[in-house]
Amino acid sequence: NVFLGEFDSxxxxxxxxxxxxxxxxxxxxGILTLFVGIYPKPLEMLMSATLQNLVNLMAR
Length: 60
Description:
70% of the residues lie in helices and 0% in strands. It has helices spanning 9-12, 20-38, 41-59. By secondary structure, it is mainly α. The protein has one domain (9-59).
């Protein structure tokens, strides 16, 4: 209420809760985000050669 004011049910009343299809999309993305946040080494290893080439190119 402080930031957005009163809830405008005429404007936002048609919105529904998340459905099964949306949930099936959000859960794997959330798990992947959590995994990369906790254990980023596999992603870092995938990108290391490309990033090293980019660093070498920028160092010229």
